[in-house]
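Possible regression after last week's pipeline update?

I re-ran a chain I had predicted before the update to compare outputs. Posting the input and the new output here so someone can diff against the archived version. Not blocking, just want to make sure nothing changed silently.
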Amino acid sequence: MTPKDILPGMKDFLKALHEAGYRASIASASKNAPTIIDRLGLTTSFDGIVDPSLLKKGKPDPEIFERAAELLQFDNSEVVGLEDASAGIAGINAAGQFSVGIGDKTILKDADLIFPSTADVDLKAIEKAFNDQNN
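New output (post-update):
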């Protein structure tokens, strides 16, 4: 696994997040997340990674997403979570966070915003949808 394996659009999205002054954390159930992030060359793109071995419940329980917000010292209402699975969307929503689904709109129908693929994820669209929902 190398930086060539970063999903389409994600390197630019993470760069845009950083340039806009946003902070990011990883809420992955994989114990290999730190290794994968390192091999992709993205370690500096994230301010924290939730340790799934410390969790009591898995997705769709909101615990992992709440911990990700805590790592950043944010209230859940200030957090946007990106997910590609319906269980993850359910967890983000249960945490009271803004959910962004990436994938099939019928599977991710409960997300606050949906992009068909990682290549389509757009920071400006997320900001607009988040602000529209919170105003």
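Follow-up from reviewer: compared with the archived run. The chain is about 35% helix and 10% strand. Marking as no regression found.
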